[in-house]
């Protein structure tokens, strides 16, 4: 169980990082999403892995799992969803105004000179 | 428990959606936006008046460490006042120059940005700090692309990507900290980390490095500063001026971390963080100062001067003594206001000529005077507060010969850089006339400089208050006790 989760976190983070290093906006966005999935799994595992135990109080439960990481993961998912929406729209805007989807800049645009 | 503490977060959170509903009436937006920022300044001053003892605000009345808490202490109050002052002046400037009309939601985004900033300064919970970071970042993305433009959008993509990766690392750090200690309340962490069993030391060290790395990205510390020049140089002038406080959020978070959560006194950490921060801060100062010499455009010069001032600030914070912290806080007030003034005057100048530092049309003497005064404040020359700030920092680092050399040498480089830029801008001119100065916009810049002057004149009382702040940071027992937790 732990090994499986650890491999999943590592694979997602590695694929995410690879895609982030591509200098195109679409792979970049997918890569950022993969990285956020890996961190969500990691947060989930930070409360110890306990299969089959409920996080909320019930009459039939014999033991409980830590509910806090689940709340943290929920928050993190919501935030990364919002951030993904923002960067997708920005990438769309950049692509429409520039006519290509490269994320790197030439020397003089990075200098802030739009002349 | 006073309810004023949550007001700086709630007020913009309520007002901003209202402004979204009123998106078709620019005038009402301006009035409400300004009123909101002015009210925030009033609130911040009220909180400053009651901040002598750390005070707790429990959201939903859940006790710490189970619920989310806001903690008001002197440092948080200081940051709130600084943010509100800067925000009000920058907003007046944005209205005076018409920048806020280049997009539809400037004032709403502006208030959301302030909500995130205020929340980040007040929160007493690490995960909540992450959430407020995201609030202020998502607002800053919107402000960054305000007014659009091809280069601005592409610079914004880089800025967003960089910050999203930083946020991911922040979450990894939080997950590690939670796995090791089982809490995310800052005061509770301070107690738990001081008493960690030896087997967990390595894990918490990894988390500490991750955490400091993330805050260093926010604070633009070398080698994590690469996002800043492109972002600031391409952002709209008033937005770049407001961003002057954004790097200070990173500084604030690092200060909280090394004084409260992961202090050098805890056996798990020791001098690990300060040993890393001090050389990084020195390099930041050097890179920024050399950059001001080599900058080819005015916005980029401003961005690199901002990096240099961050370096000086972090040197003082990383020295990690009460005296150095007080000096750093004084320098931080000066650096925030001066950086903002520099971006605003750069915006005024680039609106009238090309941004590149080459011969161009003649500018008015008012612009030259304001640029000159701002450059003095940034480089740390007498008579403005930048000089006093650098003096205090130097005084607190008596036995660091290398840092002394660095600070003095980089000041010299910055004077050269500003002199080179100023002489090109104002003396190497053609006979073409430019548009007349806008009095309201220049008044906003002048009021920033007036604040610096006040900071210089009242340096005595201000440093006295900051010394108390720094002593409170380095002896966090009252802060921990305010959370209802016992330090052992």
UniProtKB/TrEMBL annotation, chain A:
Transmembrane portions of the chain: 32-50, 71-96
Gene3D superfamilies given in the database record: 1.10.287.3510
Keyword entries, A-Z: Cell membrane, Membrane, Transmembrane, Transmembrane helix
Membrane topology: Multi-pass membrane protein
Annotated compartments: Cell membrane
Family: Belongs to the CPA3 antiporters (TC 2.A.63) subunit C family.
Protein name (record): Na+/H+ antiporter subunit C
Automatic annotation (TrEMBL), chain B:
UniProt domain NADH:quinone oxidoreductase/Mrp antiporter transmembrane: residue ranges: 124-413
Cellular component terms (Gene Ontology): plasma membrane
Keyword Membrane recorded: yes
Annotated TM spans: 6-22, 31-52, 75-96, 108-124, 130-148, 160-182, 202-228, 240-264, 276-294, 301-319, 331-351, 363-381, 401-419, 440-459
Membrane topology per record: Multi-pass membrane protein
GO MF: NADH dehydrogenase (ubiquinone) activity
Function: NDH-1 shuttles electrons from NADH, via FMN and iron-sulfur (Fe-S) centers, to quinones in the respiratory chain. The immediate electron acceptor for the enzyme in this species is believed to be ubiquinone. Couples the redox reaction to proton translocation (for every two electrons transferred, four hydrogen ions are translocated across the cytoplasmic membrane), and thus conserves the redox energy in a proton gradient.
Keywords on record: Cell membrane, Membrane, Transmembrane, Transmembrane helix
Compartments it resides in: Cell membrane; Membrane
A single GO BP: ATP synthesis coupled electron transport
Family, per entry: Belongs to the CPA3 antiporters (TC 2.A.63) subunit D family.
Keyword S-adenosyl-L-methionine: no
Lineage, broadest ranks: Bacteria, Pseudomonadati, Pseudomonadota, Alphaproteobacteria, Rhodobacterales
Domain of life: Bacteria
InterPro entries: CPA3_Na-H_Antiporter_D (IPR050586), NADH_UbQ_OxRdtase (IPR003918), ND/Mrp_TM (IPR001750)
Protein's name in the database: Monovalent cation/H+ antiporter subunit D
């Amino acid at each position: 169980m732990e090994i499986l989760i650890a491999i999943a976190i590592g694979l997602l983070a590695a694929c995410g990082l690879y895609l982030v290093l591509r200098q195109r906006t679409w792979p970049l966005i997918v890569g950022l999403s993969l990285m956020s999935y890996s961190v969500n799994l990691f947060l989930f595992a930070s409360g110890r892995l306990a299969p089959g135990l409920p996080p909320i109080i019930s009459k039939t439960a014999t033991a409980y799992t830590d509910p806090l990481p689940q709340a943290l993961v929920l928050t993190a998912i919501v935030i990364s969803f919002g951030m993904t929406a923002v960067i997708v729209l920005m990438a769309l805007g950049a692509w429409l105004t520039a006519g290509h989807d490269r994320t790197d800049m030439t020397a003089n645009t990075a200098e802030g000179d739009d002349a | 428990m006073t309810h004023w503490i949550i007001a700086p977060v709630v007020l913009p959170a309520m007002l901003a959606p209202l402004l979204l509903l009123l998106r078709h009436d620019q005038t009402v937006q301006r009035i409400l936006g300004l009123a909101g920022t002015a009210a925030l300044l009033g609130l911040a001053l009220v909180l400053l008046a009651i901040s002598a003892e750390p005070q707790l605000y429990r959201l939903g009345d859940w006790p710490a460490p189970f619920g989310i808490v806001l903690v008001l202490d002197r440092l948080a109050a200081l940051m709130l006042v600084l943010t509100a002052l800067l925000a009000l002046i920058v907003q007046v400037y944005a209205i005076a120059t018409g920048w806020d009309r280049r997009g539809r939601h400037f004032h709403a985004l502006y208030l959301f940005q302030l909500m995130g900033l205020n929340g980040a300064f007040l929160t007493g919970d690490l995960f909540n700090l992450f959430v407020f970071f995201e609030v202020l970042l998502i607002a800053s993305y919107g402000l960054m692309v305000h007014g659009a433009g091809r280069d601005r959008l592409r610079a914004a993509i880089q800025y967003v990507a960089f910050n999203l990766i930083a946020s991911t690392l922040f979450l990894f750090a939080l997950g590690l900290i939670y796995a090791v200690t089982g809490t995310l309340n800052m005061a509770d962490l301070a107690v738990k980390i001081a008493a960690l069993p030896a087997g967990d030391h390595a894990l918490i060290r990894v988390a500490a490095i991750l955490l400091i790395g993330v805050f260093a990205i926010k604070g633009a510390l070398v080698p994590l500063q690469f996002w800043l020049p492109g972002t600031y140089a391409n952002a709209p002038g008033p937005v770049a001026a407001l961003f002057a406080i954004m790097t200070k959020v990173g500084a604030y978070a690092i200060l909280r971390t090394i004084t409260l959560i992961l202090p050098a006194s805890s056996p798990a950490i020791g001098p690990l963080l300060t040993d890393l921060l001090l050389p990084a801060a020195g390099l930041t100062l050097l890179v920024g100062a050399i950059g001001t010499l080599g900058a080819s455009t005015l916005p980029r010069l401003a961005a690199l001067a901002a990096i240099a001032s961050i370096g000086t600030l972090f040197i003082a914070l990383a020295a990690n003594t009460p005296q150095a912290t007080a000096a750093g806080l004084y320098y931080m007030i000066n650096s925030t206001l001066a950086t903002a003034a520099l971006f605003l005057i750069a915006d005024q100048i680039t609106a009238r000529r090309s941004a590149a530092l080459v011969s161009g049309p003649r500018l008015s003497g008012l612009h030259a005077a304001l640029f000159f005064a701002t450059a003095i404040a940034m480089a740390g020359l007498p008579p403005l507060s930048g000089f006093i700030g650098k003096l205090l920092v130097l005084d607190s680092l008596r036995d660091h010969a290398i840092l002394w050399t660095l600070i003095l040498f980089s000041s010299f480089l910055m004077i050269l850089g500003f002199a080179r830029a100023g002489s090109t801008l104002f003396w190497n001119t053609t006979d073409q006339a430019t548009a007349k100065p806008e009095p309201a916009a220049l008044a906003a810049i002048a009021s920033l400089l007036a604040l610096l002057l006040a900071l210089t004149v009242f340096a005595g009382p201000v440093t006295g208050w900051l010394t108390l702040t720094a002593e409170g940071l380095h002896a966090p027992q009252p802060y921990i006790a305010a959370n209802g937790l016992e330090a052992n």
